[in-house]
Amino acid sequence: MRFSRPLKIQVTGFWLSMPVITLMWNAILYPGRFLTDWRVWAFSWPIIYAIGIVSWYLHIQYDHAIRRRFPSLKQTAKRIFFKAFTNPLVMTPSVIVIFFFYDYFHVLGYRLRTADLKWGYLIGLAINLLFDTLWEVLYLLEKYRESVAEKELLEKLSMEHEFENLKGQVNPHFLFNCFNTLSSLIEEDKKEAEHFLDELSKVYRYLLRNNEEGISTVEKEIKFIQSYYELLRTRYGEGLQLNIEIDRRYYPYQLPTLSLQLLVENAVKHNIVSRQRPLVMDIFTAAGNKLVVNNNLQRKTMNNPSTRIGLSNIQAKYRLMKQEGFQVVEGENNFMVVLPLIWNNN
After folding, report:
1. Neighbours of 105 (CB within 10 A)
2. Where are the domains of the chain?
């Protein structure tokens, strides 16, 4: 048989309730002299306490056994149902033992009266119901806190897992596009291809290092996009223009890593980029802790199949971080994405 150690609240409950029960039972056993007769204090109080300790300990063991059998919040009804048997299994026998013990040994001249059993039982029942209810309420609160903490942990683990999946999508996709560009350059201009490969190694090394955490500062993202822009200019020349106007007070703010790279890449992929029709991109901060990425709209006639990695990736990251404010606005002549900036508590 498995014995459980009483909880602190249960021990406290015993020491608070026993003086009350003992006083009331002595009032039933020895009416008129339970306060004045020193023998009641010297003999009757210790006897009732001794029997009470045994009864209380059995009560605790039964209570903990029920909790082990039905531990969850969903099993509360079953737990309360079986705890109702505490009364006939523990408390009632304890009352009977006390009164029959006093009658059998004529403790301080006591003789059993039928009404004594009734009042002794009602007093014990009231005290037991009071503390059983208190213990169950505290148990439910503890289980609820555990449930909330477990839910938060699962959400955090799920978010981290999804973040890893999203980050895993970015690097291969970016590398695949760069290799396509490199392949074209090799055929057109080997010297430019070598320069492009050199820039690619620097940019990709930076990309790997900053993509690990899933979130980065505005300052880091701007530095990266400037390097990435130099990489793109190797391929597109004057066909691609990038204007950056960032209020320096926003540098410590955060946003999902590689958001700007994905937006620039998305714009280049879906629009005509040529010297005659340059693709102009503007990245600037706006009131309300926002970073705006805007480009003129000149869609390709035959668009490349979308992998849905760019915008959906950024939007998914904001959703996982429970940050609102991500917007995509498409007009007749321009395409704009609004990124909410997150204050860096660190």
Report:
1. 10
2. 8-151, 189-340
Q: What pTM did the predictor assign?
A: 0.51
Tokens 């006093």 sit on residue: 102
Question: 168-172 contacts: CB < 8 A, separation 24 or more?
Answer: 169/309, 169/313, 170/211, 170/258, 170/262, 170/309, 170/313, 171/207, 171/208, 171/211
* 203 in Cβ contact with 238 (< 8 Å): no
pLDDT per residue of the chain (346 residues) written in tens, 0 to 9 = 567 888 888 888 888 889 999 999 999 999 989 999 999 999 999 999 998 899 889 888 988 888 888 888 888 889 888 888 887 888 888 888 899 999 999 999 999 988 998 898 888 888 888 888 888 888 888 888 887 877 776 566 555 555 555 555 555 556 676 777 777 777 777 777 777 777 777 777 766 666 556 788 999 899 889 888 887 887 788 899 999 999 999 999 999 888 898 899 889 888 999 989 999 999 999 999 999 999 999 988 765 555 556 788 788 888 877 788 999 999 889 999 999 999 876 6
Between CA 244 and CA 234 the distance in angstroms is 19
Beta bridge partners of 256: 215
Topology of domain 189-340, CATH: Heat Shock Protein 90 (3.30.565)
- Residue 6 and residue 33: Cα distance in Å, rounded? 35
Helix, strand, or coil (residue 272): coil
DSSP single-letter state for residue 299: B
Amino acid identity of residue 187, one-letter, is E
Distance CA 103, CA 111 (A): 5
Buried b (16+ CB within 10 A) or exposed e, 244-254: eeeeeebeebb
Q: What count of Cα atoms within 13 Å lies in the side-chain half-sphere of residue 255? A: 26
Residue appearing with tokens 């055929």: 187
68: Cβ contacts below 8 Å, ≥ 6 apart: 2
